[in-house]
Amino acid sequence: MKNNQSERKKSALPFRINKQSFLGVLSLIFQELIDRLLTKFHFRLPKEEEVLRRVRKNAIANDPSSVLKIIDDFAYKKTFLMNIGDEKGLILEKAINDSNAKNILELGVYLGYSTIRILRNLDNYSKLTSIESNKKFAEIAKEHIKISGLSENHELLIGKTTQIIPTLEEKFDFIFIDHWKDLYLEDLKMLERKKLIKHNAWIFADNVILFNLEDYLGYVRSSPNYQSKFISTKREYSKSHPDGIEISIFKDEI
Ligand SMILES: C[S@@+](CC[C@H](N)C(=O)[O-])C[C@H]1O[C@@H](n2cnc3c(N)ncnc32)[C@H](O)[C@@H]1O
User: Fold this and answer.
1) Atom of ligand 1 at shortest distance to CA of 111?
2) The pTM is what?
3) What CATH number has the domain bearing residue 91?
4) Is 123 a catalytic residue?
5) Quick check: CB of 110 below 6 Å from ligand 1?
C-alpha cells in the first residue's frame, strides 16, 4: 500500500468500481438516472417511496421477514436498491450472533433493511444505534422498522457520521460500516480516536471489493490493532458481480 493512498482525492463513482463489475454498475447508474427523470416528471413515485407503499400494503405487522421479502423482491424484480441484500444480509446476521454483541453501531441505514436484519437478532439486553444522513430515507427506515415490530432496542440518529460520531459516548462492540465508501477509513479512525471501539469489537465493512477499498483494507490488514478476515461474496442482488466483506476484530490492548 502506498502511504498516500488514504489521503487520495475523494473519487466520484464509478471510477473506483471493480473492473469486473464496471459495466453492470454503469447500467445501474443509467437505470438510476432514468428512474430520477421519471420521478421528476411525476410518472412514478421515487423507488424508495414505492417500496414503503408496498410494505405498508403487503407486509405482515411484526413480521420482519415479510418486510425484508418485499424489499428484496422489489430489488430483484423492479429496480436495484443499495441494501446489503439477502446473501450478505445472512452473513451480517451470523456475525451479529457469533460476536455476541450487545452495543452495535450502524453507519448508513437507507431503507432500514440491514437495520431490521440486525435488530431481529438482538435480545432485550442489546441495542443498536444507527446513523443516516438522508432525512427522507431515515423516515422510511423508521416506518419499516416499526412495521417489523423492532423499534424497541433501536435509536436512529439523523445526520452525517462525521458530525454525529464525536457526540457518541458509549463504546461499541460491533460496528457495521455501509455508508459512503470514501468515509469508511476516515470514520473508523475517528471512532478509534474517540475511544468508541471496545476491545474485541467486530468491525464489519460491506462492499470492500465492489468499490476497491484498498485504503481501508490496507489499514485494517496491516494495523497490529486488528485481526482481519475477508469473506468473498457477490454484490447485492447480483449472481455475477464480485464483492466482499471484511471483518476486523479490534485489539485495543496491543
Ligand atoms: C448503502 S446505503 C446503506 C444500506 C443499508 N446499510 C442496508 O444494507 O440496508 C448507504 C446509506 O448511507 C447514507 N450515508 C452516506 N453518507 C453518510 C454519512 N456521512 N453519514 C450518514 N449516512 C450516510 C446514505 O444516505 C445511504 O442511505
Assistant:
1) 9
2) 0.91
3) 3.40.50.150
4) no
5) yes
